[in-house]
C-alpha cells in the first residue's frame, strides 16, 4: 500500500512559524526602535529560507537600501570628525567600518545570528556565524528602519551601533597587521605578550575558526573567520580597540 504523503506547510505559514519561534524582543531593544512585524520578518529572511519555502520574499532589497544609508551615515560622521584629513584617508576609514567584516562584528555584538531565518542547508553549515550572512542581514535591518522611519532615525541607530568603530577608525584599513600592532602596544604597556587560543567547528572544507587573545590571564579580544590567520587578525583588532583607552588598559592588565 503506498505511503501517504505528508501535508506540506504552506510557505507563508512556515515563514510565520519560523519568525514566531524566536523571541526578537532583545534584538529590538538593542536597536532602540520598534520595527513593524512584517518588515522585521522580511529583514531577517535570508534567501536560503525564502527559496526553500516556495520562493518567498527575502531581505536582499532591504539590504540594498541599508547599504546606502549606512555608507552615507558613516561618511558624514567621519567628515565631521576629521575636518583636516584628506579624502583618501576618510574613504579608507569608511571602507573599513562598513566592510563585510565591520558589519559582521556589529552583528555579533547584538547576537543578530540567532534571529536570522535560514534554509536547512545554510543552517547545517554554520550560516549563523558566516560573515557574509551577518553583514547582509545587518544592512537589511538598517534598510527596514529607514523604510519605516526615514533617514535620521536610521542614521542614529547606525551611529550608536558603530560608535566605537567610528571613533577608533584608522586609514590603514582591513589589511593592517593587527597582530604586530598589538604586540608593539603590549610592549609599550610592559604587559605580557599576546597569546592566541583557537578552536574550529564545521566540516574540514568549510570550517569556522574562533580565536581568543590573552595578555597573561586577561582576555583582550575575540575573532572569527574562515581560517585561523584571519580570525587571529580580527581578535588582535578587537584587542587594540580594548586597549585604546591607555589608562583603563594598564589598570586592567595590571
TrEMBL record:
Its main location: cytoplasm. Its cofactor is Mg(2+). The active site is at residues 67, 139. The keyword Metal-binding applies. Its EC number is 3.1.26.3. PANTHER family: RIBONUCLEASE 3 (PTHR11207:SF0), RIBONUCLEASE III (PTHR11207). This is Ribonuclease 3. It comes from Corynebacterium tuscaniense.
